[in-house]
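Action item from last week, closing it out:
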Amino acid sequence: MCVLLFSCNVVRIAERVMAWSSCNGESICKEIHDSWGQPAHLIQHLAGLSLLECRKTRETYVKIYGEDPAQLLLQSSESSSQGTGVSQRTSAALSMLMLNPHERDAIVAREAFEQNDTVNYKALIEIFTCRKSSHVLLIQAAYHAKYKRQLDQDIISIEPSQPYQRILMALSASHKAHQADASQHIARCDAMRLYQAGEGKPGAVDEAVLLEILSKRSILQLRLTFSAYKHIFGHTYTASLKNEKSGEFEDALRVVVTCICNPPKYYAETLYACVKGTATDKGALVRVIMSRAEVDMNEIQKVFKKKYGVELKIAMSESLPSGDYGELVLALATKTCKVPDGSV
């Protein structure tokens, strides 16, 4: 049944893209233009579009009306007077939806440095572990173009230094120099080094060894290494970090390794914290739903249901406030068709 529904989704989106090509999207743009001031209609038109359709919508809208809908929504979110009739939070989310994925990630990265004097490390970790190297390069270019700053340098400049920062610096380096193909031999060798630098010796994990491996291997290679670790030693690498020796570095490393090896589990746990109101990362809900909607949301929903005994959409509907924002998030959560967006 799930396969049938997924196939139907693929067919519907393919038909919509073909329909788009036949009319150049003018009718969709007109619908959006006529929906300003009508939150329900605006959400209906925008939330149902695929990433490709959003990009084409934005381009066509600019050609027809001479205005960038993403910027209009962004300005609306920053203004106390809502020209769109949509709440500020919803306008901000809709504006992000209209952007290219790398533009959106660049904004997410910058906002991560401005979270009430604390850095939102998890938002940055998601970018550097769940995006292809080619996409990371686009993010860095978009970040520099928009903010006239270097993303890598902003990470290096974080004070005081802490484990997440050092791990991010290593992951950033890994996207610049690594082999495209994963090697079983390297995976086994690195797995042995991980053991010798961790549970195979007394004391805390040897941070230098971990950072060296993270900086020199691709995400694909790291995933293979952690798989080899489990095969050789009979348990996951994250399990080896849960002991009396664990400190801040081990805690951060456990989150990063989960994000690398099992993104659906990581995102399911993140969403659960959001819907239960225990998350300190207030932007995580929309960030995750938007970035994974057309990547692996089907799998995230399965993990969520298995782990917490409730459907994600039900949990969200029970916790989200009524109104346009809740409607938008739920609409985005239904976009489960996989469309390439530069993710790993």
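Closing note: The two ends are 27 Å apart (CA to CA).
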